[in-house]
Amino acid sequence: MSRAQEPHRHFFPFGNPFRNISSRGSQLSPRLHHQLNGFEGTLSERLQKLIPKDKDDVLSLSWMKLAMESLYETHNDIKTLIAELELPVSEWDEKWIDVYLDISVKLLDICIAFSSELTRLNQGNILLQCLLHNLESNSSDRFIRASSSLKSWRQHISSKNPRVETCRPILESLVESLNMPEVKKSAKGKVLMRAMYGVKVETVYICSVFAAAFSGSAKNLKELTIPDTVLWAQAFNDLQTYVNGEIRNIFSHGQFTVIKELDAVNACVKNLNPMIQEGLGDFEVESFKSSVSDLGRLTAKLSQGLDVLSKEVDGFFKIVLTGRDALLCNLRATGSFPDTMPGRNIEGQVLR
Q1: pTM
Q2: Residue 338 · residue 125 · CB < 8 Å
Q3: What separation in angstroms does the CA of 235 have from each of 49, 59, 158, 212, 243?
């Protein structure tokens, strides 16, 4: 819902892009209405499913996996809608193409940054395995070696990833793109632009949540204002209000890390640290064994969660890339491939 003091001008410098659809619905055929309502209804259901049932789910790897799955499905839906609209690329307004290609390049950059961070976190698991190996050893110097592994892990996990730091300006530019060219002549174009708006809003918001989690900074978290004319407005506002509130609460407590599974590992390590540094007393042996067992279980859960999330991010990367490639191939086939098109050399620039 739009704020009273902030009408749609911030996101819609060309006027309300939904005016022609909402106030002059007769311009759309029943078939187009059905397609648009189907797309927006599905998006609304998808956003509702992302509202956590419990605050502890926020910024868990399992919730982040669901969020990335949701993005994949929404981007897959827009590909299906484009095919169903039977709107040839040759009839696309050049502004639509420019916006699509520019946004897709930025999304690919964000995916690369996320993949880089997930790889870095997985590398930290190697240090945890070394820590566990040392703690389970019977060697006389096991605590000395365990202390070294523990220090290395904490330094590695608390370090900053330069690639993640690049997400903030990209997200800022994506927020500025949350408008669409006004479509005057094409009813199919109106449906396409309104559906793409929904895709952009969900994508920008979810990516901002991931960027906040991976960077450890709430500054990357976005608060988006959307018009109440879209069918998914309430679901999105409910999701954003709940998740943003919990994330800001997590950051306000100054935790070592905001990713739940990683934080659980850190809490277990903190519990073990005095025993590693000072040695075991007569009554601490069982407590020590229990804590080492907990660390092994939590480390395995963290590793599995990171692996699954990495696959989801890779899947999202691929659907953005294949959608972009399909558009470029169609543009080449129709001979409408201007040299000034943004990101046209992405095939040679994207490195996985």
Answers
A1: 0.85
A2: no
A3: 9, 19, 35, 21, 12
